[in-house]
Design goal:
- The complex is a heterodimer of chains A (about 130) and B (about 150).
- Chain A is mainly β and about 130 residues long.
- Helix content of chain A is about 10%, strand content about 35%.
- Chain A contains 2 helices and 8 strands; from the N terminus they run ααββββββββ.
- In chain A, the strands form 2 sheets. Chain A has a 4-stranded antiparallel β-sheet, with no helix packed on it. In chain A, strands 3-4-6 form a 3-stranded antiparallel β-sheet, with no helix packed on it.
- The longest helix of chain A has 7 residues, at about 1-10.
- Chain A is elongated, with a radius of gyration of 21 Å.
- Chain B is α+β, with helices and mostly antiparallel strands and about 150 residues long.
- Chain B folds into 2 domains: about 1-30; about 35-90 and about 100-135, Immunoglobulin-like.
- Helices cover about 20% and strands about 40% of the residues of chain B.
- Chain B is built from 1 helix and 8 strands, in the order αββββββββ.
- In chain B, strands 1-2-8-7 form a 4-stranded antiparallel β-sheet, with no helix packed on it.
- Chains A and B meet through helix 1, strand 1, strand 2 and strand 5 of A and helix 1, strand 1, strand 2 and strand 5 of B.
- Strand 5 of chain A pairs antiparallel with strand 1 (about 45-50) of chain B, so a sheet runs across the interface.
Chain lengths: ~130, ~150
């Protein structure tokens, strides 16, 4: 415990990159259908209480903190993933209704359904045959 | 709790990355031979391996995969995990991005030689598969008494 903290606060690391932390960009699938846009993000290790979704008029931000169950005194031998912090943001477009986003999280996969404003959903145009 | 994990992570992995980058800068590429079973960067699933004197812990990042469908095996000190991730695709939708991995995968990781393949535990939580392998007694550091 004390040892890991000492290493983390070593002055060289602080000087090199103050305030900056490695952030993981979660891979996403994004698709659109008549009802809206669906965004699916892989965020393994994130549980509901460590997930944060923020929306304003123009942007959608998803962030999360992964938890790994690590024993005391563990030392890394190999690492593909070098951070526990996920963050990615997206620009929304005006026809979307950011106040009605439906979010679900299962097995480290986040699914967001962003509906389109009802009046802007595509309508089928009937062709009248006279 | 968070702080501890974050501090741990950044200390270990940032440092590792920095070292690797410095090496890249110096020599143009990683100067040491790579593991014979190692995969190219970006391979699925990503793996982290750590060790204490008692155990070796492997973490595989397998979001959205039912752990029961995974084939996990250990032979001597080589841990293999294979499976398939099927992503249902909505044919009527317009896809803008498809960055998530789909298809079959297999990864093998060479663990330290003193692991005991008979004492393995695996559990999966929030899309992280954690495999814990105990090390043999002989490998643990022993206290040496001065007479």
């Amino acid at each position: 415990m004390t040892e890991t903290q000492d290493v983390a606060t070593r002055p060289t690391a602080e000087v090199r990159r103050p305030e900056r932390q490695v952030v993981l960009n979660p891979p996403v699938d994004i698709y659109e259908d008549a009802d809206g846009i669906t965004l699916i993000a892989d965020m393994p290790g994130v549980s509901k209480d460590r997930l944060n979704i923020e929306v304003d008029k123009h942007t959608l931000l998803i962030e999360g903190e992964a938890h790994l169950d690590m024993p005391e005194g563990i030392q890394a031998l190999y690492a593909d993933i070098r951070s526990t912090r996920y963050r990615r943001s997206f620009l929304l477009s005006p026809e979307l209704e950011p106040n009605n986003i439906d979010a679900s999280l299962k097995d480290g996969v986040l699914t967001l359904k962003i509906p389109k404003r009802a009046e802007l959903r595509p309508r089928k145009i009937e062709v009248r045959v006279d | 709790m968070f702080n501890r994990i974050t501090a741990f992570e950044s200390s270990l992995f940032d440092e590792f990355k920095r070292l690797e980058q410095e090496m890249d800068d110096l020599f143009g590429r990683w100067p040491w031979p790579i593991g014979i079973r190692s995969a190219a960067r970006g391979a699925f699933p990503p793996v982290n391996v750590g060790a204490t004197s008692d155990e070796v812990d492997a973490y595989l990042f397998v979001p959205g995969i039912d752990p029961k469908t995974l084939d996990i095996s250990i032979q001597q000190n080589v841990l293999s995990v294979s499976g398939e991730r099927k992503l249902p695709r909505d044919e009527k939708a317009n896809y803008y991005r498809q960055e998530r991995f789909t298809g079959t995968f297999r990864r093998a990781v060479t663990l330290p030689e003193d692991v005991d393949p008979d004492r393995v535990e695996a559990r999966c939580e929030n899309g992280i598969l954690h495999i814990k392998v105990q090390r043999r007694e002989a490998a643990k550091p022993r206290q040496i008494e001065v007479k």
